[in-house]
Every structure is written in C-alpha cells, then in structure tokens.
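Lab notebook page, bench 4
Experiment: in silico fold of construct C2
Operator: M.H.
Input chain length: 382 residues
Purpose: comparison with the prior construct
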Amino acid sequence: MSSTLFDDIRQKVWLHDGQRSISQLTGIFEPYQRVLLVYDEGAFVLCGAEAFLKPVLTGCEVVSYPINFTLPSVERLQRAMKALPLTNMDAIVAVGGGTTIDFAKLLRYFGGGSVSHAQSIEEQVRVPLKIPLVSIPTTSGSGSEATPFAVLYVDGVKHSIAHDSVLPDFVYLYPLLTSTLPKKQRAATGLDALCQGIESYWSVNATGDSQELSRKAILGAKNYLAQHVNNPDDASREGMVIASHLAGKAIAQAKTTVCHALSYTMTFRYGIPHGIAVALTLGRVLVYNAAVTDDDVLDPRGAEYVRHSMHDIVGLLGYANPEEASLGINTLLDSIVGGHTLSYFGVHPEEDKLYISNTVNLERLKNNPRRVTQNALMEFLM
C-alpha cells in the first residue's frame, strides 16, 4: 500500500508502512527549530508514541504540553495560551485522541489572539498562527485529524469552532499506536466512527462525494469494529483507523445530526463516553428517519430521496430493513459495551430524559433529514 492515502488539496495524509513513511514524516520537521508537542499524558509513552517520535523530532527544540483532561474548556485554553510561547513556535504536533487533537487545533486558531468569557465565541479575538499542524491520532474514532472543527466548552456548553485554519495540514495514521487502548475506549471511539459514517450519509448536507466517504467508513466499522474491541489484531486496528479517518472526512463535509445532538449532555452531565452516548440513539433514529414523509422532510431533495438513503444504510449494515438494523445496532452495543439503554448507564428518571431532550444541540439537530419533535426526542432516549 502506498504511504500516501486520502490526500486532498488541503491536507496530506500518510498511513504508516514502515521506514519510508517515517522518513517522509521526519522530512516535514527538518526546516523547523521549535515545535510544540501537544500530547495525551496517559497514552503518550504507553502506546509507543514517545519512542516513535523521538528520532522524528531529533533536530527540533520541543516544547511539551501534556493533556490530562477529557473536555477542552475555555479556562484550560486560557491557561495554555498564557503558559506557552505560541508565537515563537515553528510547528505544532498533536498526538492523542480527539480531545488532544482538538486542543492543538484551538491553540493554533486562537494562538495569536485571545480567548475569554467576556465575549461570545463568535466575537473572540482570534489570529490563527501561520504554522503547520501535524496530527497523529492514537485512537480510532474521533476523526478529529480530518475535520476543520474543534470542540470548546464554555460554562458547560459545547461550542464547535469551524474554520479552515483548524484543519491539520498533515496527518500520520499509525495503527499500532492504538494497540494499548483499553477495551471501553476502543468501543467508544469505534462507535463514534460508525455513527459519524451513518449520520453523515443521511445528513441534509450530504453529497455524492461525502456519501462515498461515509459508505467506506460504515463498511470499515461494520467489518472491523467488533473484532477491534473484543479481540484486536493488526487487520482490525488498521481497518478501524482508516474507517475513523474516512468518517472524519465525511462529517467535515456533511456534519452530524440528531444522535450527536443528543449525546453532548449525556457525556457532559451523565458521564457516558461520547461514542457510546451517540450510539445509544442510533438505531431508533434510523427507524425514525426511514419513516419520513412529505410533511416532515427537511432534506430539500425530498422524502423519497431520504428513504432511499436509509435503504442504502440498512444494506451497508447487512440488514433487510430499518427495524432489523436497529436491533443489530443494539446487539452490537450489548456485545462490546454490555448494554444499549440509558438505564444501563445510570440514567433512569424521566426528568433526566427530559433534561437531555431540552438541552439538545440545535446546530446538529437541523442537519437531520426528518423534522424531530419533542416527543420523538423522548422516544429516542430509551
């Protein structure tokens, strides 16, 4: 396989294939003297990233910034911007999962300006640093390395920063770096990739090009996710790393929908890992969207187009109809995380479900192809 993969005009991507691809990565850093290394503190040494990167960055002065949190907040971003000599950096390299990569994106995006609580995110003084950002994911699920989006929490509310300068310039996909992930994290990140593939396929923003990326991501997750979680091997690691990246590229174009819209509160308030939180409603939303009518369709291409898209997704998952696909998704959840209901994860009372539905992310909700009512939101939260 070629060491270059999935390139487009905005981003160069390698899939690790030995010394040749390592040499190409090393060549990126040859012109740079000072490099900011943003890394996942818990995984950096354990997964082998430190040993892998040491010879790659030999000629650089490295300024390290470890990430030891799960949600990027404005307070954490403020502290990092004060502590780091960002304007003196020649490049940034991010090594970790979605949070780590997002944080590095935010540092580049806000690095020449400021960020505060005094203004809305849209009014912040942002002067993106004109330096390259290299992303090396150590999980297979977020797809953050492939998107021009970064999550930032302000007073507990999730905001999505979207800008061309947020997209990493270089991506190095090294499946072996995912080999020490705990089972629960393999499940959560892999489910995120599956959901991103499916939601981007049915999104009102989907195009023929984005759906081709979604299709490959769905098939990759279908073929490799259970193996990657329950009995990982080289093939399943590589399969999920590629599926995750393709799903990220798909949502970069089409964005996510109602499953993601409901998931953020489940994660922030109730502690359900993001990918699992998204997957908990996936099957029921699939059935709901497949029943779209001319009266409640939001996709301008019409209800028949949406039903055809749902038929495609059901087929890609290997089922005969949406109801079978929904049961299959629940069975998958049972097999890799132990359960498929909110109550299994400790969310019982009706008022909790009401709180989740009332705090749904409206930006993601509007991407769904069928209009979602309050009653429907409650029915998704089983």
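Observations: Strands lie at 12-15, 34-40, 61-67, 91-96, 133-137, 149-154, 157-162, 170-173. The CA atoms of residues 211 and 374 lie 28 Å apart.
Next step: discuss at group meeting.
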